[in-house]
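Reopening this one. Same input as before:
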Amino acid sequence: MEIGTVMILVAIGLMAGMVSGFIGIGGGVIVVPALVYFLGMTQFEAQGTSLAMMIPPIGILGVMNYYKGGHINVNFAIVIAITFVIGGYLGSKLALKLPPVKVKFIFGLIMLYVSVRLLWTSGIKLFAGNGS
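Same output, byte for byte:
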């Protein structure tokens, strides 16, 4: 794995962990889009890799299906999982220093951004006739 790729994975893990610790989201909302946009993974590869990094808290059965289909990058999942723990700690520390209404507002902004981005990018492909 190249150092640049490792640095991107570390950044994804820390960001997802911090957002998870800060407002309770992270895996699918942060990791999947980050793997697709920053590392060029397919949607299935990103979903499978995201699930692989969350095996302990989520469960192994979904991961097994993605693994059998060849849609998991195990090395990426390991790096993100390790840094996710660190980010989760940092994000939770930050969240507990702020009033709940500010955390709720930030959560809403992140969900809005991710939703609009997902709808926009998939809508362009859908209406262009490239639904893959």
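So the earlier flakiness isn't reproducible anymore. For the record, The mean pLDDT is 83.
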